[in-house]
Each structure stands twice: as C-alpha cells, then as structure tokens.
Task: structure prediction
Amino acid sequence: MTGTEALEPSIVAIELLGLTIARCMGIGLQAPIFGSKHITMKARVGSVIVIAVALYPTLPMPDVFTASIPQHLSIIFSNVMVGLIIGFAASLTMYTVQFAGELVDTQLGLSTAASFDPSAGGTVNMIRRFKFYLAMMVYLIINGHHSLIISIYRSFQAVPVDAMFVPRGALIADFVYMTNDMLLIGVQIASPCMAALYIVQMALGLVARSAPQMNVFMLSFPVNILVGTTVLSAAIPYIAKKLIFMFDANYHQVLKLLLLMKPGG
Result:
C-alpha cells in the first residue's frame, strides 16, 4: 500500500481491530487496576486484548478504510494518545490518594520506613501504600472498572477509530483544572491527620518551653505516630465516602474529556 487506496473488507476488519487494540493498550498502560504493576505484563496485555476483542463487534466502524502508510501511522499514534489521555485521567484519583498519603507520611516522620512497592516501581511510604490499597478496594467495590470499560466504549463514539486526534486548547485547560483539583483534594484527605499533628506539635512546643530538660524531640516520634494512626483509623469511613464521590466525579470528568476530544466538538 503505497498510496491512498481501498482495502479488502477482511483486511479493513483486521486493521480496525488492530487500531482498537492500540487504543485499549494506551488505556491499559495508565488506567487503575489494568495499569497496576501488581499484575504481570502478560496478564495486562491479555486483558486489554480481551476487552478490545469483546468491544470490537459493538463499536461504530467505517465501512471503507483508505489511508496511506503515513496516514495509517498517524492514526495509530492518535489512538494510542487518546488511550493514554483517558487512562491518565481515570488514574488521577489514585494519584490524589497517594499524594495525600505522602503528606501524612512526611508529617508522621515515616519517610525512613519506606519499603519497595511493585505498584510504584520504587520505595513507598507506609501510609501512602495503605491509602492506595484502600482506594483500589473502594474502586473495585463500586465497580469502577466497569465505568472504565464504559468510558473506553464511549471514546470510540467520541473519537472514531479511523480519525485523527488533535488536542485543542479546551482539552488542555480542562486537564490543568483536573490537576489543580487533585492537589486540593489531596490536601483535604490528609487534613484530619495533618491538623491533629499540628496540634500535637504545638503542645510539644509548650512542653519544651515549660520543661527544657525533657527530650521533646525523641518524645515526638512515638506521640506523632500514635496520634496520627489513631486519627487515620477514625477517618477511614469518611475517606472511603470521599473516595466514592471522587471516583464518581472522575468518571464524569472523563466523559467531559471525551466530549472535548470529539472532532469539531
């Protein structure tokens, strides 16, 4: 195929299936659960291919597909880019929860207790890992992975598999807004522990002023951990409710991104 020419129907079907897999593969690299490094690469690739093959018969597909080799490569790149954008947007809630856990870890002084976590590909602190697993559990309980599959299906309705995707200013601005929102919500999730620890630090400062002979610095470590973990345990039900709201809002944000990615939309 050297020029723009019509292809046989069987070849068109194979190429469109390959483009569908390319988009789903982009989503699978970033999306919650599917992009987790807890799952082996073979299982991740296999699950993505199964989803693509299952969705393919129900997707809107062109009857005729004509493209030169450069155009075909551009379409493949467009599908992968659409998948990466959807996967990254769907993962923002997970990143927010881990950011909140990192803030609490820093305040508790648990940075020295970091250990290797395969999901992050490096060392991760304890509270960050705990909140990540809590968010993953809530995500599965509320069928967040089902919402992700629905988002994949709707992405083909918004951006056809044979269309060229060009990011627009409105899409970039919405991404910036989502990132700002992530930082704000991360601080809100960590705020109970951070507020309690701030009060503890003030109390220890008063103790240090009234009893200079006490080693307040060494005393602060167990006190911070005791107060922080107690407040965190008490806040788990509220964090879980917040996560349910966040995952629902994130799903609608992904749908909004799909509308902004729509050609001419």
In short: The radius of gyration is 23 Å. The longest strand covers residues 115-117. The beta strands are 115-117, 122-124.
